[in-house]
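User: Okay, second chain of the day. Same drill as before: sequence in, structure tokens out.
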Amino acid sequence: MKKTALVTGILGQDGPYLAKLLLEKGYKVYGLLRRYSTPGFGNLEYLGIEHDVDYIEGDMTDESSLLSIIKNTRPQEVYNLAAQSFVGSSWEQAKLTTEVNSLGVLHLLNAIKYFSPTSRFYQASTSEMFGLSHENGIQDENTPFHPRSPYGVSKVYAYWMTVNFRESYNIFASNGILFNHESPIRGIQFVTRKITDGVARIKLGLQNELRLGNLDPQRDWGFAGDYVEAMHLILQADTPDDYVIATGETHTVQEFVEKAFAAAGILDWKKYVQTDPRFQRPAEVPMLKGRIDKAVKQLGWKPKVSFDELITMMVKADIERLEKKAR
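Assistant: Same drill. Structure tokens below.
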């Protein structure tokens, strides 16, 4: 019999990459859809799997819908990728961010506890939980949390609720603490995709400037396609646990900008970039850098796509998208 998996956040960035990986491994994949009037399947279409996923309507803020979904599907693996995941919006949408990112996880864990206690549960945790906390500039599984945004705060709640269900009810519940990971299907509101899309438009003469916030923050950027492999490995482990998933490298936003323009063959990036205070966060996280020793040793996982390869991939994809639109 096929293994079954439920993936929430199926329309986002990670959901499609994870669904593709699971389908290639022979899983039956259920994808949770919010009750959109016109859901956007573009990311799934980009990966060529839009017709291969079984879609189920539900809502992370509606516990009854999650209870029903788990009761009816009883998946062997549950990957919770659903979130209000844009950090910048979480200050203006703190209530929604909390309802989806925090209480939604509690609802889903309760549904597993009641109707499918043998399901293995993966919670998409985030490096934003660390915030200002680090040890010699590095974060790992033992680094205390000090979130600097409502998004980070909401994810800390979800992290500890996952641990609590593991310890209280013996549920196989694990956290993947993922550092920044990007791809050609990253949402346009995220700074990395905003950069690559803007560079592509400048390259093709469709715009003449790129307005950004603070260029100084340093991030540990990897490829989403690599990181979903870690998610799967986390649920194949003998015992549930929590893992930092990162590259161990850090780069500034300015470095990302420079390399994106270079990938498009534009060397004088300063000519096109304007800083705009509207895009600066109320409380910034200056640097995030993950230590992945535990994931390497216990899961055998390592990132494959380099920082330069990731940026080139994204810029190339955005240029191709825009050229296709223009035809």
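DSSP finds ten helices and 13 strands in the chain.

User: Thanks, on to the next one.
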